[in-house]
Amino acid sequence: MIYTSQSIEKVIELFSSLPSIGRKTAQRLTFHLLRQPNELVENFSKALIELKKNVKYCSVCYNYTENDPCDICSSHKRDKSILCVVEEPNDVVVIEKTHDFFGLYHVLHGIMNPLEGITQDDIRIKELINRLNGIEEVILALNPTVEGELTTHYIAKLLKALDIKVTRIASGVPMGSSLEFTDEATISRALESRIAV
Amino acid sequence: MIYTSQSIEKVIELFSSLPSIGRKTAQRLTFHLLRQPNELVENFSKALIELKKNVKYCSVCYNYTENDPCDICSSHKRDKSILCVVEEPNDVVVIEKTHDFFGLYHVLHGIMNPLEGITQDDIRIKELINRLNGIEEVILALNPTVEGELTTHYIAKLLKALDIKVTRIASGVPMGSSLEFTDEATISRALESRIAV
């Protein structure tokens, strides 16, 4: 009889299922919410529903958006001749935070991983190839992991065959790490010193 | 234009408002939820509402519960002559996990803190005094902080005037720390070597 309520147990279990949240933190968060006004918890609950209801993929770049095409794809201020390819939507956030890139994005939603059976057909490479009209340069900004290197080389080969200039961000990002945990300055540097593949 | 969606921004903000969750973790959790099936996120949303709707205070011990009195207060297996007084509901969880205590609880919901203007009347001491019928021993299991010591001595004085045996858990719990972060073995030891005040 450790928890005296099924509802508490349930919320602790759900928090524990999130990445980087252990059982103890989950318990702390749950008891914290119990002490908050009803309104805050109702807001939280509603925000989760809205999140899944309102957020969809941009049909151009496949980033998360509420309007299709997304604000970046439809902005007049962005350079539509340059395309930055990333693995996941949060990589877009990381690059936007540098305020150093003004082109468009393309989100692959994954990375080629032969060991896990994820091939070029399982990520949005075909969609990338289909939107190259008017694009002068493609910057590959994938994580410098084994799988990222593999995917970078695969895409570079495809694009070069189509006579598109392909660059990749410099390895200012430490090898084996990921964009998500890199500071803005390092990512700015990596964008700046991108090299031809 | 760092986040391309208000709904994402909103959930990140709400996660950031929780204890021990920074902006970066909040962003990570939000993007994680976006990748989950609708059903899981709906469950999460519903669980938060149920949490606030179903969980109330036990009218006897003031622990969180869905049934009143709570499962501990109404259990036939618990020793109703011994009462363990704690600061917060999560302290009950910590003590239950030791499987070393079979009496009842009383949750004060706070601690006396003259600097912050929290007096004996702001926590559930009166309710403790009103439920001493049949109680042979009261164990004070408050955090060994300055405020915990103050409250321990205040309650001990009250109870001794009423001829109730009062004990406190031993300082196996490091001074200045809190029960929440103490391992079960240390708390077992502290319960076992409780001393008369």
Can you tell me about this structure?
Two copies of one chain form a homodimer. Helix content of chain A is 41%, strand content 12%. With 197 residues, the first copy, chain A, is of the alpha/beta class. The first copy, chain A, has two domains: 6-54, Helicase, Ruva Protein, domain 3; 79-176 and 185-189, Dna Topoisomerase Vi A Subunit, Chain: A, domain 2, CATH 3.40.1360.10. In chain A, the strands form two sheets. Chain A has a five-stranded mixed beta sheet. In chain A, strands 1-2 form a two-stranded antiparallel ribbon. In chain A, α1 (6-16) packs across α2 (23-35). The longest helix of chain A has 17 residues, at 38-54. The radius of gyration of chain A is 20 Å and the shape is elongated. The first copy, chain A, starts with 5 loop residues before the first helix and ends with a strand. The interface between A and B is large, with 60 and 60 residues.
